[in-house]
């Protein structure tokens, strides 16, 4: 390798234009990273990978390419189309195909999306893309400024690249090690050094990163869909791992600098599963994939008609020691947890608490060795959920993860994992992620209730049959509600809506309401039907739509009372009832149906018409359904 810089030149801080009045502001990111080295055109592979990762963030994007003895950076505020246009201009102006490069798609919570804040951040010698937060970036920046570095962006990542630059004397690994030893925070980093034009470097701490293995080419990525078109073989990097990746070799070093091998995994997701397959939106595709996803989640664990979680660690002795269950998650996964509480308490007769992960960690929870912590997460990378998991584990809890992504941080930190097999979920608003989480929770509850001797054989057999019937019920829920598109046309202009229900219907109402607001931007609230009258009913006015979930048949009469209350105040009612229950026609203006069956498992089929309702309302309103504003699929910062 031709290192043409001399040490003195390297030490000299390079002056970059200062941004007048630039604010020192931390830039929180949860982003997509991709890296490529090999014979293909790096621009194409990186753009393709970023397209697959755009769900992780989409307010700006950029590439850094090793070309012509230097690093060429092209970046742009806005969606990938803006970056693509810039790249086309550069190609027209003579940019050759590169064979080694890194790319990034960004979602900012601080620091406005702008060209200058976009990644990669660079010096003439090194360029990085970063997912995570550098907590002590302020102090580091002051030190670097004293050395003569100037800053153009508001990001912590620019501080990091200049810190690496200041440690670089021709040895990339040494520079990374020395720089990162001074950093507090979380990061997944992909790095290009000008003097190493055929090598990618990467480091991982608390933010996900995988290495993909090809034939004569290798990849880095935040997530599997980014590389699936090229290879299925990958390794998940572990905490503190550092990687040197060339076209013909990948070398991984652990946090102590020892060369290590990481397990090579094979992604069984097919490429089709990560693409739209003829549907106008990923969300609609994923709604329709729910029967198959639930089959994949449940059927391998029901053998000869009996649930078997296939988790040897969770044995009879362990189960008997559990005196309480804590369910912890964020967003939709927390809503799945709410349903889980009703089901586990009802079947296992063990007290269950549900916690928002972001709240649990700051409230000194009563968690100990007699606690089973069930962590629910689609991505397995949600920062708040990871922090809550760590907190409870430190207090002695035994941790079961219900998680979709194999090898994710949550899967690895937990004592054992019950994987949902939803496959890749691309739409930001989760659908099959939720129903597979519900299925896993049902499976757990039935299995544990039997092991604990809390249900008799007849009930057990009944529930197992219900578990096996779930995929068909979900399909029926899709088929029964073809008119939902028409109903969305009727109600899409509402400024606000309410969702009410009791018991499990209330938990499902929370999720139905969240789906609507996430993708249609219509304000909506979910209320326990009996609680509405204690204040919130003041918001019900003439023509306001109230969605009334009435799938808990034992509580139907109570729901009728609540429907009457809102109708008396001028509301219109969209009722959701079990198929064949004609009583709803007398109460509601419009009706959705969910197939009947075990009321304890009602949330799974009944959410389907609500997912479809949210989808079609958003479509009527011309919203960007798969990439709603302000949201990110995987929230890897606190
Ligand atoms: C984000 C997503 C939500 C998701 C939540 C938890 O906010 O937009 O759809 O429910 O994170 O994600 P997890 O991957 O832990 O299930």
Task: Describe the 3D structure.
- The chain has 638 residues and is an alpha/beta fold.
- The strands form 5 sheets. An 8-stranded antiparallel beta sheet has the order 3-2-4-1-10-9-11-15, covered by helices on one side. A 7-stranded antiparallel beta sheet has the order 5-6-7-8-12-13-14, with helices on one face.
- Helix 5 (156-167) crosses helix 6.
- The radius of gyration is 26 Å and the shape is globular.
- 6-O-phosphono-alpha-D-glucopyranose is lined by residues 330-333, 377-379, 382, 385, 428, 430, 631, 633-635.
As a percent range, the share of helical residues equals 25-40%
Provide the structure class.
alpha/beta
Low-confidence stretches: 1-29
Main β-sheet, in a few words? 8 strands, antiparallel
Count every helix, treating DSSP H or I runs of 4 or more residues as helices.
19
Overall outline: globular
Bound molecules: 6-O-phosphono-alpha-D-glucopyranose
Fraction of residues in β-strands: 15-25%
Placed side by side, the strands forming the largest sheet appear as 3-2-4-1-10-9-11-15
How far apart are the first and last residues' alpha carbons, in Å? 41 Å
Q: For the CA atoms, what is the radius of gyration?
A: 26 Å
Mean of residue pLDDT values: 89
The strand count comes to: 27
What is the element layout, followed by pairings?
Elements: H1 7-11, E1 32-37, H2 42-53, E2 60-67, E3 70-77, H3 80-92, E4 100-106, E5 121-122, E6 126-134, H4 137-146, H5 156-167, H6 172-180, E7 185-193, E8 200-205, E9 210-213, E10 218-221, E11 233-236, E12 242-245, E13 250-253, E14 259-260, E15 265-266, H7 282-288, H8 290-298, E16 302-303, E17 306-307, H9 316-320, E18 324-329, H10 331-348, E19 352-356, H11 357-360, E20 371-377, H12 383-394, E21 398-403, H13 409-413, E22 416-419, H14 432-451, H15 457-480, H16 484-491, E23 496-501, H17 504-520, E24 523-528, E25 545-549, H18 556-567, E26 572-578, E27 590-594, H19 603-620
Parallel strand pairs: 18-19, 18-20, 20-21, 21-22, 23-24, 23-25, 25-26, 26-27
Antiparallel strand pairs: 1-4, 1-10, 2-3, 2-4, 5-6, 6-7, 7-8, 8-12, 9-10, 9-11, 11-15, 12-13, 13-14, 16-17
Helix pairs in contact: 4-5, 5-6, 8-14, 8-15, 10-14, 10-17, 14-15, 14-19, 15-19, 16-19, 17-19
